[in-house]
Amino acid sequence: MRIKIENVRRFEDNLIKYVKGKRAGMILNRDVVGVQSYCDTREQCEIVPAEFINQDIHISVDRSEPRVSEMAGIALNGNVLKPFLITKGNLDSNELLQNRVLQNQNTIVVQLTTGTMNFEFCIRWVKEIVDPYFVNQRKIEGLPRNTEGMLLVDNLAAHCTKEIQALLTKCHIILLTMTPNATHLLQPCDVGVFGALKIYYQQEKVGISKMSLGQIMANAINATQKTATIITIGNSFRACGIKADVQRGKLVAAIDHNAFVEMEAQITADNAAVPDASTEPVKRKRVKKFGALNVPSQK
Questions:
Q1: I need a labelling partner for 78 at 20 to 30 A (CA). Which of 57, 144, 190, 191 fits?
Q2: C-alpha 3: how far from its chain's center?
């Protein structure tokens, strides 16, 4: 998909308006990543009869391993939110405990019955993880209780419902969404965290043909702890045009215009490599709004 440079410039303007100058600990990025690692997604050894050694052979794989998604959150100051793990698998509390997956301590685990994501889980994530984080961060930094936090997310519909916007407004949190099709350039979790998380996860799985749900979740938590370091988080935000500067003894957000110049050059090159559509689509795509969604418009 082509990315409109003017949309990226609008997003930079939004960062200047809503993010610049805020305390680094009050700026969060949230995204969801799948952490399952099937056996056909990595190199493996197979034992076959000698006469077939030089032949192409298709081997069936077992994909019955439970699927797990992680809703992750990182802050500009290097803080990491508690992993929010989502699964369709049957939860066995004893098996989770055996694997040190401690509900409400090192993670929150929820069971999904339909689809892959819904706004009810986003509501719960805000109530149980995000709002308590900002409440505690305001106390740590000596900020007024109504100091606004910033939550940067993509344009997934489940992340941006009216109910979520209303809840965030009540919690003094601004919801700032990104321009469509550009999260690989603008979203810190995508740019620098999730790739490393999956590498660490697969490293933990070496030699294990199939994991139980508790093992998957334990490894997801472990991979998150290894990946989301203060250096990785800082580099990820900086690559997306948001850096942390020291002003009057406080760590605050600043906007790196040079990062956006580099993004525009990349977008120009990418768009040049993608031919224009020769025909108009039969049905026009619905254009999603992006920016600060729960801020009252100023007339």
A1: 144
A2: 20
